[in-house]
């Protein structure tokens, strides 16, 4: 999905993923572009052609996620980032280091192990001549999905002053990560400023399939889900139900996740609802939380169903002609691990492409 966000103005020289389903999906959407399927640690520097303008790394996020075990960079899954970095170091030794890097991950990257993991990443970047900075961007600025992520942009060439400055994307977490760095690494920091994201003009309800084309839960399944709600969330549903029956009322769409909460020392399964026009953060069906559920209230009636694969793709900013695995679980596995397409386009348009233009790497349009 980073490839989709960069767009047709870019040529991909090399791509890698160890997941066969994701690899098949990539090939279906980008036929003819090179993709190495397998562990990044098995990729040899000689397989990487030329010198790229940009290398993008979206490594598995579980070891940085607040919902996970917080193993940090020592975690086996996030060690894929070091597999990527091994290649960058080798390319640098050959004089072929990419001119810019983007490392994308969950916000836990900034605070994992008290900031030590981020400091290790910063030290690695600085040692290879990169200056860097971080931005925290929630896809909710572009799409009806709550999906905060951290983007570390590193550059070999000095950036123009117009790309630097204060930004609302320098969140408290970003500022804290910077403050925790040793002074020697702070000297390599760049306060990237891509400007404010455009105002989002869609809500969750706008991206849904027609009611007659989807499979709804049976009434007893919906009743069971509602029974799992704590009073606060049950009150949200009841307020939506009552509001939908009045003259000024109407259809309301909410999103629900099942979560395990600790209550009075006991682990209790709860269903939690939101009616703010946003879906919760999409995840893979087998990871973290359970698959996301839609709750539709209309004329006093409450119905529920699972998010479809195509709806998940729309929530990531993918067009309807984007080829997905046929099974919903497979489609949601692919999109749930992805990066929101318009966020990538925003970074490319506001920072990456102007940076490369200023260095004379690409022609201004």
Molecular structure report:
The chain has 365 residues and is an alpha+beta fold. It has 2 domains: 2-198 and 336-358, Rossmann fold; 210-307, no CATH class. It is built from 11 helices and 10 strands. The strands form 3 sheets. The chain has a 4-stranded mixed sheet with strand order 3-4-6-5, with helices on both faces. It has a 4-stranded antiparallel sheet with strand order 8-7-9-10. A two-stranded parallel sheet has the order 1-2. A hairpin with a 2-residue loop joins β9 (293-298) and β10 (301-306). It is globular and about 65 Å long. The model has no long low-confidence stretch (mean pLDDT 91).
What is the architecture of the largest domain at the second tier of CATH?
Answer: 3-Layer(aba) Sandwich
- H-E string: HEHEEHEHEEHHHHEEEEHHH
Helix count equals 11
Strand order of the largest sheet: 3-4-6-5
The proportion of strand residues reads 15-25%
Cα end-to-end separation: 23 Å
Radius of gyration: 22 Å
- The helix content, as a percent range, equals 25-40%
Largest sheet report: 4 strands, mixed
Structural class of the secondary structure composition?
Answer: alpha+beta
Give the CA-based shape.
globular
CATH level 3 topology of the largest domain: Rossmann fold
Write down how many β-strands occur, each being a DSSP E stretch of 2 or more residues: 10
Arithmetic mean pLDDT? 91
| Total domain count | 2
**CATH H-tier superfamily of the largest domain:** Vaccinia Virus protein VP39
Low-confidence runs (pLDDT<50, min 5 residues)? none
CATH top level label of the largest domain: Alpha Beta
